[in-house]
């Protein structure tokens, strides 16, 4: 499970839209326009896990940069509105199974080549061909022919068998009609399919991508978005600059964006207070006590809600964590309200559901394992045969997770008598590499920030067998079958009801532990006169004025 990137609900965020999309004070004078045109900003970031290839990026370190470098078929408005066309001229269907997609003519990649229909088809085929190893490959499972292009390892990453070679290297459901038009045929009607198309997995790739190794391309990526790549110094800085040939709605008002890659949130916060950092998405927990961040930042502070949930994930590939009674015991021993009150000073809400309630189709209160019930937890632990040895809870130490992870470990130690402690991994990139290599030896911090506004995004990537972010290798054939039924439902209403049944099965198995729903406290420098946050609380760099 990972923190991802994208949109939220037009309906669910209606009450919070003023918080999410409100801008800072601004002036329309000529001086401000000039300052913006040639100006630059420095924003907080962390080292990406992988080279920057859209369909192989499943975390926010690289994900937010990809969001700026690329523009997709649809976009998710900052004001919480419904998805709307971006690069797509039109997306038409009569049956939610066959879609005709026409893209706008005359848009360019950063190397000057035109974005054409084939750039989408080629990119999707590359991602859906499992030998290429794209982490987002399963996002193309809706498309006809996926079962011929994508195969899974039959006995897991540590087993002797290898995944069989696919029988096809291209999806039968993709067809280029002309330079601006392509057709997508799904395996079954899928009402949510157009909503997904703003997620980074579905971005186009330039022709040059297919002449290089993916990792070479990803170190010097070529997108089609409002900024283009300049340079990348590991664990230090990613430099971006305005793409002057960009001709869609969201053009840049400023010129340069430096993404400073921090290993310590407190150091980043000190830079923010000194106006050496222009935007920090989440202030450290040390600044929350007594609303210190409000005093420090004044009108430079921002408070919002996002469709994001913090989890503790289990490495179910480790035999010690394969008993669902043990996992439920750990969950019931966590006092979420105490963590919210004492660690986050009420800025986070205790989680009580598997999908964030800001999401269309999400059912509130459906996590029975989220209750605090230490007595039942002790009984379940005994029924599971107890736990031998040390239970280490892991987190990435370059962001503000130490306090709440220490609290979780201490609660497990106190309420279950397990020898538990928390341990930080120095950087997010190394942390994610260990997770993806299935090398975690204890429960670990995870989170989910939805990619597109539908409950499907909280089930298929996380809980179906082989899901793109099912990092703990959880598998339940009943969940798989119910999720498949839900994905192919004829309407969103029917889909949401079917996904609710799948979530009931997930709740019985407790493959992970929802801990809290995010609130977000952000800050910006004095030089920024206007900005907007997108639907998941990230800075919209195209809105920035100086």
TrEMBL record:
What keywords are annotated for this sequence in UniProt? Signal
Q: What are the GO MF terms of this UniProt record? A: peptide transmembrane transporter activity
Under the heading Gene3D superfamilies, the entry gives: Dipeptide-binding Protein, Domain 1, Dipeptide-binding Protein, Domain 3, Periplasmic binding protein-like II
Q: Is Signal included in the keywords of this UniProt record?
A: yes
Q: What is one term from the GO cellular component aspect held by the record?
A: ATP-binding cassette (ABC) transporter complex
Location of the Solute-binding protein family domain: 83-469
Q: Which InterPro entries match?
A: Peptide/Ni-bd, SBP_5, SBP_5_dom
Task: List the SUPFAM superfamilies hit by this protein, alphabetically.
Answer: Periplasmic binding protein-like II
Quote the Pfam families the UniProt record gives: SBP_bac_5 (PF00496)
Which GO annotations describe the biological process of this protein? peptide transport
Keyword Signal on entry: yes
Q: Which residues form the signal peptide?
A: 1-27
Designated name of the protein: Oligopeptide transport system substrate-binding protein
């Amino acid at each position: 499970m990972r923190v991802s990137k994208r949109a939220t609900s037009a309906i669910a965020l209606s009450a919070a839209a003023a918080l999410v999309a409100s801008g800072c004070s601004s002036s329309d004078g000529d001086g401000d326009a000039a300052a913006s045109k040639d100006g630059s900003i420095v924003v907080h970031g962390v080292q990406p896990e992988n080279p920057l290839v859209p369909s192989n990026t499943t975390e926010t370190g690289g994900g937010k940069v990809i969001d700026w470098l690329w523009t997709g078929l649809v976009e998710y408005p900052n004001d919480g509105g419904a998805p709307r066309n971006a690069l797509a001229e039109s997306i038409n269907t009569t049956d939610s199974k066959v879609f005709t997609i026409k893209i706008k003519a005359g848009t360019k990649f950063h190397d000057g080549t035109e974005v054409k229909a084939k750039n989408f088809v080629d990119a999707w085929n590359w991602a859906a061909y499992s030998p290429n190893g794209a982490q987002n490959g399963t996002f193309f499972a809706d498309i006809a022919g996926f079962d011929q292009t994508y195969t899974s390892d039959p006995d897991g990453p540590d087993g002797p068998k290898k995944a069989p070679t696919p029988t096809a290297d291209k999806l039968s459901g993709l067809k280029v009609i002309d330079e601006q038009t392509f057709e997508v045929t799904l395996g079954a009607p899928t009402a949510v399919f157009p909503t997904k198309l703003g997620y980074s997995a579905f971005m186009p790739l330039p022709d040059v991508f297919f002449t290089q190794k993916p990792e070479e391309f990803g170190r010097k990526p070529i997108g089609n978005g409002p900024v283009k790549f300049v340079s990348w110094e590991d664990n230090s800085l990613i430099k971006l600059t305005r793409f002057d040939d960009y001709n869609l709605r969201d053009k840049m008002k400023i010129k340069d964006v430096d993404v400073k890659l921090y290993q310590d949130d407190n150091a980043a916060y000190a830079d923010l207070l000194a106006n050496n950092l222009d935007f920090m998405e989440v202030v450290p927990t040390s600044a929350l006590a007594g609303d210190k961040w409000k005093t420090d930042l004044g009108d430079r502070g921002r408070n919002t809600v996002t469709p994001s949930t913090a989890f503790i994930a289990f490495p179910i590939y480790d035999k010690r964590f394969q008993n669902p009674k043990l996992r439920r015991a750990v969950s019931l021993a966590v006092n979420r309200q105490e963590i919210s009150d004492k660690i986050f000073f009420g800025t986070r809400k205790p989680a009580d559901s598997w999908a964030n309630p800001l999401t269309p189709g999400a059912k509130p209160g459906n996590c029975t394992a989220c209750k605090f019930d230490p007595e039942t937890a002790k009984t379940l632990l005994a029924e599971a045969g107890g736990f031998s040895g040390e239970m280490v809870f892991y987190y990435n130490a370059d962001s503000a997770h130490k306090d709440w992870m220490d609290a979780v470990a201490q609660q497990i130690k106190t309420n279950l008598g397990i020898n538990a402690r928390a341990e930080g991994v120095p950087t997010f990139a190394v942390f994610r590499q260990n997770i993806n290599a299935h090398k975690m030896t204890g429960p670990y911090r995870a989170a989910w920030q939805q990619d597109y506004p539908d409950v499907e995004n909280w089930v298929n990537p996380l809980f179906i067998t082989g899901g793109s972010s099912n990092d703990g290798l959880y598998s339940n054939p009943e969940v798989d079958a119910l999720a498949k039924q839900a994905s192919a439902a004829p309407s969103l209403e029917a889909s949401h009801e079917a996904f609710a049944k799948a979530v009931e099965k997930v709740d019985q198995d407790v493959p992970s532990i929802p801990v809290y729903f995010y609130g977000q406290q952000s800050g910006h420098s004095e030089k920024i006169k206007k900005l907007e946050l997108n639907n998941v609380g990230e800075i919209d760099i195209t809105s920035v004025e100086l």
